[in-house]
Amino acid sequence: MKAPRENQKFHVGIKAFILNGQEELLLVRESTTGLWELPGGRIDVGEELVPQEKVLRRELGEELGPEVQVKIGPLGLTWVRERKPGDFVFLVGRLCRFEAGVPKLSDEHDAWGWVGRRELEGVEFAHGYREALAEFWNLPPAARK
Predict the structure, then answer these.
(1) How many CB atoms are closer than 10 A to CB 30?
(2) I need a labelling partner for 54 at 20 to 30 A (CA). Which of 30, 69, 76, 97 fits?
(3) pLDDT above 70 as % of the chain
(4) CA-CA distance, 41 to 62, in Å (whole number)?
């Protein structure tokens, strides 16, 4: 008899692909690692049945401050980030549009910026993000709107 297969366990997070009118993405830099990522975060205990949009709004408010207004759109893509060996986060990326405001970062991040597709080459990303951003930019332009 075959031994039972072990299932991987993941944290789950929701991230925002926030585009502005110049087709640039909003990125934030992690304070602890100096690596760049998308804003958003993990689903907290007690939020398991909360709609994704509400969880993402909470995370964006915490990370970018209350002034930033974003239109949250549909699912864009998913990917996996390994935070440290054996610690995996399954990420759900929502397609979003920037509407207004200036980010006021939490202690979790120490910098933010708008980055266009061609500017991504020199950016140091957290694990899994470079591939996810390449996949994002390969979506048909109409899907990114």
Answers:
(1) 14
(2) 30
(3) 99
(4) 10
